[in-house]
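Known limitations

Files may contain more than one protein. Parsers should not assume a single record per file. Below, a two-record file is shown to illustrate correct handling: read the sequence, read the token line, then continue until end of file.
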Amino acid sequence: MAEKVSQEEFITKAVVSLRKDGYKGIHTVYSGFNEAFKKYFDNADPVQATNKLAAEGKIVIRPVKGGVMLYLPEDTPAKGQTAEDALKKMGL
């Protein structure tokens, strides 16, 4: 059997390979990432692995309905309106 790739390589490859056309990230549940990660790494915890890489700045995690989205740092969409923006629009 070929040598396994590292968790970092696996996650990076997953983000690039599993994203749908027009999208820059993947949903960890709906893309099948979580299950694939567990199967490839003998039931290892994908949440722990992705949180570690996010803390190191190698990926970006954004919470969404039903799970999280994973992005490569260079592909992360701009954040939406900030609290400051909302307060300014409200005149407060």
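...continuing to the second record:
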Amino acid sequence: MARDPDTIEREIENARNALASTLDQLGTKANPQRLATAAKTSVSAKLNEPKVKYTLIGVGALIGALLLRKLLR
């Protein structure tokens, strides 16, 4: 059974609009500036957690003490 050409054209237009919308959404999600900002925010939040923050401070102090000890020898 043959389909009405107007129906086919409407279906094609609807598919084209859906594809354009999907491509716009993918473009927004894959925006390098947005990805960089999200990564920076994520890392900053992780570093501000007390468990991570104080561990890094301790490691930094240990390395500083070891360097100072080596320089004074």
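Parsers that stop after the first record will miss the second one. For reference, the second record is described as follows. The chain has a mean pLDDT of 91.
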